[in-house]
Write a structure and sequence with these properties.
Layout lengths: L7 H11 L4 E7 L2 E6 H17 L7 E5 L4 H12 L3 E5 L5 H11 L3 E4 L6 H7 L6 E4 L9 E2 H7 L14 E6 L9 E5 H15 L7 E2 L7 H14 L3 E3 L6 H8 L3 E4 L1 H14 L2 H8 L2 H15 L6 E4 L6 H9 L4 E5 L9 E2 L13 E2 L4 E4 L4 E5 L11 H7 E2 L2 E10 L5 E6 L4 E2 L5 E2 L1 H11 L2 E7 L7 E6 L7 H18 L8 E4 L19 H13 L7 E3 L4
Parallel strand pairs: 1-11, 3-4, 3-5, 5-6, 6-7, 10-11, 12-13, 13-14, 25-26, 26-27
Antiparallel strand pairs: 1-2, 8-9, 14-15, 15-16, 17-18, 18-20, 19-20, 20-21, 22-23, 24-25
Helix pairs in contact: 1-2, 1-3, 1-8, 2-3, 2-6, 4-5, 7-8
């Protein structure tokens, strides 16, 4: 059924006519804003359409983008909508195998290459393609056949037909799965537009709001929550200059809506605690007048003093971390969704303190139910249209209009959802009983100062915890080990006998995207850790609570 919502590219055309000189995109370069008005953005996008047409691309052709977030990313995505091309975003941290797979599998005819921390993988990947049109964005990046500035200068704006149908294919988003090669989720105009507008209505996005775009645009959350809503609601967006200047960049823009992921919220907390130890903070928060000043100063120090909505998603977050932010006056709305549901399924919005620990309830227009095997099922207008070239998996994923998410969870009496992990993450120890690791990990985050952790145990006598401590000056191993002993005793007193943790292995090398333990969205590839550390867990010395990997 057709809907009444205008599509994002139609809305940008509208804003370009209604408020052409208002600033839409703000790119920080050399510590200064480079501003693009709505008219600039629309006209540049139409020039890119003309360039692609001259390269011989036709309506429906696939065009890839690989870049960190920047104003040009938005302009290119708009251009692909205006020209009726199918966008194929690629994570800027992707490795050679992934980039080659996505370009080949999607049959991309062109690729735009932009801001990259490391150009090696992209450069090596593009060397495998002779007939691919390559365009470099105006940053230090991979050398390409065409340059952005030349195309903008050379071509006049194209004339485009803005009409689309809900069933038209807009984008293929390759999921950053924790196992195997990524699958290409088919995103149609209708579902993308519906999801964006539902968020605008539910959150109440309005004139005066400001967004900040830094989480990967190749990920569905940033694409819908930031790009989709900003285009549709006409809300200005700023982009950071670099990771090193990130906090200062946020301060320059002072967003009113700000989304992050658990790892970054943890790093922000660590930054605050380094300057203001927890005991001192607790004391100051007990003094009424001082408490107000401290909260204001902390929010200002993060550049979030104007933020009316703070969000967190993409990976499990501990209730303890959200409670800590609540204690300093920053209420974080946890949300849950996936590529296949356009990241729009549940939100704890309006924020409810008593629902911390859940991921909220179903957003307007979304239905939830729990299957007999505890799998979470989702039904809405905002569902994907299957996986590209994979009808078998597509038919298994959406059954009778219900998306089978692969997550397991429970709904409370008010419909608030608590995620208990992925079905495939649950493992059987040698005792023959299943262990669900995510709730245990969440509890451990509350009890300890471990930065990253993963509970594994497939076929082992007992689960073992892989732990990476916070990288802090003057790290005291003995003190950390004593803390682990206390935490292990406490958690094991709370667990069923088959869940009790046999010991903790302190990992010597932090997990990262570069060493391929983390996905581009910072999820842990549990199956790789299970494989890498299975022998250690299977032969864990009886009675040993803590081992250090660099001493084995």
């Amino acid at each position: 059924m057709e809907q009444n919502y205008p599509y994002p590219h139609q809305q940008v055309a509208h804003w370009a006519s209604q408020k052409p000189n208002d600033v839409f995109l703000r790119q920080i370069i050399d510590r200064q804003f480079k501003d693009f008005t709505y008219n600039d953005v629309y006209e540049h996008a139409l020039r890119i359409v003309a360039a692609l047409q001259d390269m011989g691309l036709h309506s429906g052709d696939k065009v890839a983008l690989i870049s960190k977030n920047c104003a040009e990313w938005f302009i290119i995505d708009l251009a692909l909508m205006l020209g009726n091309y199918v966008s194929v975003p690629i994570f800027p941290t992707a490795g050679v195998d992934t980039i080659i797979h996505v370009l080949r599998h999607s049959e991309a005819k062109a690729v735009f290459v932009g801001k990259l921390d490391d150009t090696k993988a992209t450069s090596a990947s593009l060397a495998h393609f002779d007939d691919l049109h390559t365009v470099s964005m105006p940053y230090k990046t991979v050398e390409c056949r065409y340059s952005w500035n030349e195309l903008i200068a050379q071509y006049q704006p194209a004339t485009c037909n803005l009409e689309r149908k809900d069933s038209d294919l807009m984008s293929i988003v390759y999921t950053s799965g924790t196992s195997g090669l990524p699958k290409g989720a088919l995103l149609k105009y209708g579902a993308f537009t519906w999801s964006s507008h539902k968020l605008i209505e539910h959150i109440g996005m309005q004139e005066g709001d400001k967004l900040f775009s830094y989480l990967p645009l190749a990920h569905i959350t940033e694409r819908v929550y930031i790009l989709g809503t900003s285009m549709s609601a006409g809300i200005p967006v700023a982009f950071p200059e670099s990771l090193d200047t990130f906090i200062e960049d946020v301060k320059m823009h002072r967003p009113t809506l700000f989304i992050s992921v658990p790892r970054l919220w943890t790093l922000f907390q660590q930054r605050i605690q380094e300057k203001l130890p927890q005991k001192k903070l607790d004391l100051l928060l007990k003094i009424p007048l001082v408490s107000t000043l401290i909260k204001r100063k902390l929010a200002d120090g993060l550049g979030l003093n104007k933020a009316r909505v703070l969000g967190c998603g993409s990976a499990p977050v501990s209730a303890g971390l959200l409670r800590w932010y609540e204690s300093i006056g920053l209420n974080i709305t946890e949300a849950w969704g996936m590529t296949e549901s356009f990241a729009y399924s549940t939100l704890n919005y309006p924020f409810r303190s008593d629902k911390i620990g859940s991921v909220g309830n179903a957003g307007p227009g979304v239905e939830l139910k729990i299957a007999d095997d505890d799998e979470i099922l989702v039904k809405s207008t905002g569902l994907f249209d299957g996986y590209y070239k994979d009808p078998q998996t597509s038919s298994e994923t959406v059954v009778d209009e219900w998306l089978h998410t692969g997550d397991i969870g429970i709904l409370d009496d008010e419909g608030y959802l608590t995620i208990q992990g992925r079905k495939k993450d649950n493992f059987k120890t040698a005792k023959g009983k299943f262990v669900c690791p995510v709730p245990i990990e969440k509890r451990l985050f509350e009890l300890s100062n471990i930065e990253m952790m993963c509970l594994i145990g497939l076929g082992m006598p007992a689960p073992i915890l892989l732990a990476i401590p916070h990288d802090i000056p003057n790290f005291d191993r003995s003190r950390f080990e004593r803390k682990l002993h206390r935490v292990l005793d406490q958690i094991n007193n709370e667990l069923e006998s088959h869940e009790k943790i046999g010991g903790v292995l302190v990992i010597k090398e932090p997990w990262s995207i570069d060493n391929e333990i983390l996905t581009p969205t910072l999820k842990i590839k549990r199956h790789l850790l299970e494989k890498n550390y299975h022998d250690i867990g299977a032969n864990w010395p009886k009675g040993t609570k803590v081992q250090w990997e660099d001493q084995l």
